[in-house]
Amino acid sequence: MKHISMICLMAFMLSCGSRKANTNNTDNPISGPDGVKGRIVQMDSSLEAANAVTALVEFTTSEDVSEIMGFLASDDLQGRDSGSEGINKAADFIAARFSSNGIAPYFKTHRDTLSNFSEPTFNIVGVMEGSDAKLKNEYIVVGAHYDHIGLISSENGDVIANGANDNASGTTTVMELAKYFGQEKTNKRSIIFALFSAEEKGLLGSKHLAERLQLENLNLYVMLNFEMVGVPMVGKDHLLYVTGHELSNLAEVSNAYAKEKVAGFLPKAKEYSLFKRSDNYAFHTAFNVPSQTYSTFDFTNFNHYHKVGDENEKMDYKHMAVIINKMIPVIEGIANSDTKEITYK
Known about the structure:
alpha/beta
């Protein structure tokens, strides 16, 4: 996340609890009420399980999350600085996953070279075309930045700012959502899946893509961004917060499709203008359509922002899998509604 106040980030997490689901899975894939397919989490009572299918259907597991995070935030990628060999390895990895999961390149290839950065670096941009003859001409962008800040001053002999939470976590979320729609093809509207470079250099990757799509007169309905979702919030009654919560009805629409309160308001996000500090903002500026970020960084639950301590070992993979699974019906609902339900107020 770009330029968060370091004073507020010195707040330490005193306690961090998350409700742990039993993740012993059955082997049989099933289909949930909203088209969500996966494995049911094992319950103590078969009746209880039958009554809770919607909430407990799994597409993504913590093992799926671990595999992607283990690569993106590894020392081998040297902190994924824009223009570096490490981020190029990440770009190859993401593009290969898009291809294997049925996500076609939006442009000629999945790599989209930035026009506003001094070194060669790339956004990775794929698309899952919608199935409805009319609605497929309306687009949703689902995005996250995959760059970080590379090598920094040594701390206890470590110089690699791996960027697990910031923002391998958001990247992993987008990649798993892309896998779902690439495999299941349940979207009536077309969905662009975009992983941005050079966010840490001033939101340059998203600015480049937003302006390029604007020049194409893309019919953009909404931009949904994921930023720092690797650890649960503390003491909240919702799973994620939405930046610019007061500007639109995105949280209400998200909760309606999730059938629970997955999205809410974080006062600190408004206080520190987080709406303007992540990749959603370029799309807001270029298109003036609802463009907002989902996050779980609450200023108390993570004190390793832009530090070498932003490591995989501090991430909660079960929490991340829950986010992905609960966001599938949200994005599916947004993609398939007859009208554009999400609006700026």
